[in-house]
Design brief:
Elements (H helix, E strand, L loop, with lengths): L15 H5 L6 E6 L5 E2 L14 E6 L2 E10 L11 E8 L6 E5 L13 E9 L2 E8 L6
Length: 139
Amino acid sequence: MESHVRPLPELTPENTAFWTGGAQSKLMIAFCGACDKAIHPPQVICPACQSRDVSPRAVAGSGTVYSYTVNHQPWLPDMAVPFAIAVVDVDDAPGVRVTAPVTGCAPEAVMIGQRMHIAFEPSGEVWLPLWTPLEGAAA
């Protein structure tokens, strides 16, 4: 996917690690220190046990495509289309799915069950996640 201007997230104390972890090539997911539940999007209180002991940790940065769509609509000026957006079940973070554009392959090559690895694109003070196919890896 080609770089273009996209709306950027507002950084909050809860989500800053997720949106800036790409500077160190790390996918940062919030986890509860009390029950070890992975929490995404990040929250102050664990939805499982209501603990406030929530903090980010780096996960493998890989996963499996749960679903995807191919977008043909240029939602912003100069947006290159078509492009794929994948919803990926993240390894090492049970129950967490991260939705991001797919890069490194043609949109029609994305498949459910395909293995992906995270990459990041800097934009201002945030690092936007992108999924890239793991070559030769099957679910």
